[in-house]
Structures are given as structure tokens and as C-alpha cells.
């Protein structure tokens, strides 16, 4: 089985933004409201952050399930891990996710500001200052034959797309506009020269875009 | 986590038949051509019978993946296991699937004609003459906390629906009519009083129906 690099359940606005401007401790998605942007995901039975039983089991849920399936490592950008900019003052910050982050695999954080690896619940965070190809090689080795999830944000996905390293993408386009922020694309069709592309409207109002290499 | 009873990747014709008339050794689906009925599935990267790399990774593939995900046992009807009717003359028949059946879990075959359990590759077949509730209890115990797949055929799924034991269904409706055979339903809407229901047309031409209990 090939060991894929996969984008899963990444959500952007109708105008292509994965997050708004002015990220802060209080607003991890900047001026975007993640409860609105990701409402399609929060109601599913398979939402990785779900703490109570229940939730929908329709199309949105089938796609949310693949967040974990067959994944052995994640790569994320520095801004997904933290609102801090510049060198670390201390290492008290351990991410947004509490004592049991939903990743449950090794996670490689791409950053110019290195710090020691640490483990929280079932997740170990590593900090790497490397090219997309080099961090992907490290993540593949850590994934032990399973796939690697490219966790975002939009800038990080763009960097891996520009390096032609992404095998499959599941991107949900939410029915709202952000106007500014970090942008994944101007149109989902921009990748059609390199990827097959299924467009799947969901009853929830989002449109799922499923892309895989030609 | 609840231990669900799930129908996965079950395919019916536009008029609701899961197989045609006159099943035989040469025609496991009777007058229906499984290569046409299930063409949406055969081309996916995750088709359980796939023997070579490649295949699509769009919507159809995302749904095909759930055939294995989280499944610890299968229940199937006697006609899915074999074209034979009546008591076994001998036990030479071991199913349609060759030396490595795609189930890779315990499989419970509902039949009035018992025979000893046997193991083939990673699959063990058990033969049970019991009510739907009783065989489900056995399959749940064997699944060790994972879900149970209800593998069909249509008559078997109907029996479990009538006993109100099915938690989720993924049924693909193929764009062809069979006119007769074993029927799952007259219309996918018949279950709407008991199930939520997402209708998801695929670019491949099938329409996926995803149902989960209200």
C-alpha cells in the first residue's frame, strides 16, 4: 500500500480562507468563528473533539471519519499549534487541545523556533525547521506504514501543494465569506490540472471537495 | 462507544433489487450482472477485492472504505454464502471468495443447514440457525467491541430491519432496473419514519443513501 499524504476535513470559507486575520489566544481562527466555519463537523458522530454520544451519521460523518482512519502521523504549521510568534519565552504552551489532543499520533510542527519534543496523552509533538519534503520523510518514518495527515493551516497546505507532495485532499467549503485571512485557494478548480476532483454538496450546506492525484 | 449493526456498500438496482432471479454457481447474482450493478465499487482504491494498486479516491472510495473500518464481525444470509439449497451433501464449498475472503473477521452465516465452522485466510465462517437478535448477540460478542456489518443479501437485511436491529445503512442505488429478484425496498424513502436519510448523488452515476436511526 502506498503511504499517502492526505488533507482531511480541512474547512475553508466560500472565498477560500481557512482562517481569518488577527489570530490570538482567544481567537485561534482570527476573525473567523470556528463554530460557524466548522459547524458541519461539530455535529457529526465522528467529530474528533466529541465528548458525548450521539451526532449525525450521514455524509458529513462519513467524511469526518477519515480524519483518523489509516493515519500514523500529522504535519501542521506553527500557527495551527500556537498563536505565539517568534522565539519561545518558555515552554508552558502545549497547544489548544487540553490534556488529550485529538491527534493520537506523532505530530510534526513546522517552525523556525525549535523546542524539545513533548508527549500529551497519546500525542507526541515534535518541532522541525525543515523543507516540506524533509518533514514529510520524517513523518512517514514515524507513521510506520500508515498515511500522514497534513493538518493545515492554509499556508502549510499551500507549501506542500507547491512542492507537489499532497496525494489526496478533502476540503469542506462552508457557506460564508471571510474576505481576508490565510487563503487556501481562490477557487477549488485551480488544482484540476493535477487532481481528479469530486464535488459533493452536503445536506448540511457545505460542499465537500475530494481531490486525488491524476 | 456503541456497537453498531451497519450495512456497508450494499448495492441495489433503481427498482430496489439486490440480486436477480435464478442464482447459480455461475451467476451468484442471478440474472443481474455484478460487474454492472457494482461498477461504482470495483473502480475504487478501497474495493475489498482489489488486487492491484490504483483506483479512484473520490466520493465512492470514501464510502467503500467504511466496509472494513471499525468492523469486528459480519452476518450474512445463506444465499450470500452459497448457491446451494437444502442440506449439505459435503462441505467442499467454502464460499465464492477463494483462499483469502475479504471479510477478515468472524462471519456468521444464517442458515437452516448447519455445518462445522471453518477458517479460510483471516476469515472464520460460523453457521447459525437463529433469530436475528440471537445471531446479532453472537456476532457482537465475537466483534470484541467493534461494529458488526450486516452483509446481505436483501432478504437478510429486510429481516433485520423488520426486527428493528439495524443502526446505519449505506446503500448505493445503481442506474439500472432488474425487474425481479430479491428486493430490499420499493423506495429508499420507506424507512424515513425510522431513519435520518442523506441522499448523495455520485459523479459515477450511483446515488448513495446514508441512513441512521432517528
Topology of this protein?
Two copies of one chain form a homodimer.
Chain A: E1 5-13, E2 17-19, H1 34-37, H2 39-42, H3 59-65, E3 71-77, H4 78-81, E4 106-110, E5 118-120, E6 123-128, H5 132-143, E7 147-150, H6 154-162, E8 168-174, E9 182-183, E10 195-201, E11 207-213
Protein name (chains A, B): DNA-binding protein
InterPro entries (chains A, B): DHFR-like_dom_sf (IPR024072), RibDG_C (IPR002734), Riboflavin_Biosynth_HTPR (IPR050765)
GO molecular function (chains A, B): 5-amino-6-(5-phosphoribosylamino)uracil reductase activity; DNA binding
Give keywords.
homodimer, alpha/beta, Dihydrofolate Reductase, subunit A, 9-stranded mixed β-sheet, globular
Your description of this structure?
2 copies of one chain form a homodimer. The longest helix of chain A has 12 residues, at 132-143. The mean pLDDT of chain A is 95. The first copy, chain A, is of the alpha/beta class. The first copy, chain A, has a 9-stranded mixed β-sheet with strand order 5-6-4-3-7-1-8-11-10. In chain A, strands 2-9 form a two-stranded antiparallel ribbon. Chain A is built from 6 helices and 11 strands. Chain A has one domain: Dihydrofolate Reductase, subunit A (3-Layer(aba) Sandwich), CATH 3.40.430. In chain A, strand 3, helix 4 (78-81) and strand 4 (106-110) form a beta-alpha-beta unit. Chain A has helices spanning 34-37, 39-42, 59-65, 78-81, 132-143, 154-162; strands at 5-13, 17-19, 71-77, 106-110, 118-120, 123-128, 147-150, 168-174, 182-183, 195-201, 207-213. Chains A and B meet through helix 3, strand 10 and strand 11 of A and helix 3, strand 10 and strand 11 of B.
Amino acid at each position: 500500500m502506498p503511504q499517502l499524504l492526505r488533507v482531511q476535513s480541512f474547512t475553508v470559507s466560500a472565498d477560500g480562507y481557512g482562517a481569518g486575520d488577527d489570530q490570538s489566544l482567544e481567537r485561534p481562527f482570527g476573525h473567523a468563528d470556528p463554530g460557524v466555519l466548522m459547524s458541519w463537523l461539530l455535529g457529526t458522530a465522528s467529530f474528533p473533539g466529541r465528548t458525548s454520544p450521539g451526532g449525525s451519521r450521514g455524509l458529513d460523518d462519513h467524511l469526518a471519519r477519515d480524519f483518523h482512519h489509516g493515519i500514523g502521523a500529522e504535519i501542521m504549521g506553527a500557527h495551527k499549534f500556537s498563536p505565539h510568534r517568534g522565539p519561545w519565552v518558555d515552554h508552558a504552551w502545549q497547544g489548544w487541545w487540553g490534556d488529550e489532543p485529538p491527534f493520537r499520533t506523532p505530530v510534526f510542527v513546522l517552525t523556525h523556533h525549535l523546542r524539545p519534543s513533548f508527549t500529551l496523552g497519546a500525542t507526541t509533538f515534535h518541532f522541525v525547521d525543515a523543507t516540506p519534503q524533509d518533514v514529510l520523510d520524517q513523518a512517514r518514518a514515524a507513521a510506520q506504514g500508515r498515511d500522514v495527515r497534513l493538518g493545515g493551516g492554509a499556508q502549510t497546505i499551500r507549501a506542500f501543494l507547491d512542492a507537489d507532495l499532497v496525494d489526496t485532499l478533502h476540503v469542506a467549503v462552508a457557506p460564508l465569506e471571510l474576505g481576508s485571512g490565510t487563503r487556501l485557494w481562490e477557487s477549488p478548480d485551480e488544482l484540476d490540472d493535477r487532481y481528479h476532483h469530486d464535488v459533493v454538496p452536503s445536506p448540511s450546506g457545505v460542499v465537500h471537495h475530494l481531490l486525488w492525484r491524476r
